[in-house]
Amino acid sequence: MIDDYAIEREDRPGHGRYVIRLPGGLEAEMTFRKIGATVIAIDHTYTPPEFRGRDIAFRLIERGIADARRDGIKIKPECSYAVAQFRRHPDWADLLA
Question: Span 3-17, mean pLDDT?
Answer without folding.
Answer: 92
